[in-house]
Write a structure and sequence with these properties.
By secondary structure, the chain is an alpha/beta fold. It has one domain: TIM Barrel. About 30% of the residues lie in helices and about 15% in strands. It has a seven-stranded parallel beta sheet, with helices on one face. α1 links the parallel β1 and β2. α3 crosses α4, α3 packs parallel to α5 and α5 crosses α6. The chain is globular and about 45 Å long. The protein binds zinc ion (2 copies). The site of one zinc ion (ZN) has 5 residues, from loops. One zinc ion binds next to loops.
Length: about 260
Amino acid sequence: MAFEYNHDMHIHTRLSPCSGDDGQTCERILDYAVQNGLDTVAVTDHFWDSAVAGASSWYKPLNYEHVSRSLPLPKNDTVRFLFGCETDMDMQGNIGLTKENFSLFDFVIVSTTHFHMEGFTVPAGITQKERALIYVKRLHSFLNSDIPFKKTGIAHLTCNLIDNSEKFAHIDVVDMVSDKEFYEIFGGVAACGAGVELNIYTHWYDEDQLKRVLRPYMIARDCGCKFYLGSDSHHGTNLLNAPAKLKGILQYFPLEDKDRFTVK
Ligand SMILES: [Zn+2]
Ligand SMILES: [Zn+2]
């Protein structure tokens, strides 16, 4: 059976400061899931655990007290609604959620590619070559973490925030990571059981660019990694465009149902 657009595991609500959409509620997200016949959705607001020192000023208020305002989640018979979060990794490779506090969430996504947060996730003023080295290092830090990987996903591996100095600069950085390095990383990801997020605006890219962006995912598939779709919606309009975005990825990157990551 083909892997289908029947889930969306990366969605923000109005509790994320970058949403700014008062209508982006859990009820709205459940409606989106029902309208599109999804079996699973996850709310994943930006989060940093107060028990982990060193939050940036942006993350500091985004603690459990804040993100748990979404609870209790609205219910529906056909949709599994997961309470998740999107946490981050500081410059030292520490994940913003203690191992113990993973139990507060059904699902956790870790972003290793928020390179726009200079001084917190990455040093300021780094070159593209340095970005590539840090990109690989952060993924190894993730793999070396002592966390429950089977309820964890790696968010937007190839997002433009890796280098947003120009529209396509992030692809140049991805190009600097060798196949061998990606095989090492995704061999580790497959072994630990973490999910790989598919969250790509395929229509941004021409054919050659898309090939370059998809290379890490092809290697991940080759390594036997499991995948999930994430629209990264922050607004109602994102939810309207999410079906096209997520179906578009599967058109260029077909998978089988057995390749799907599911939270046990
Ligand atoms: Zn955001
Ligand atoms: Zn993110």
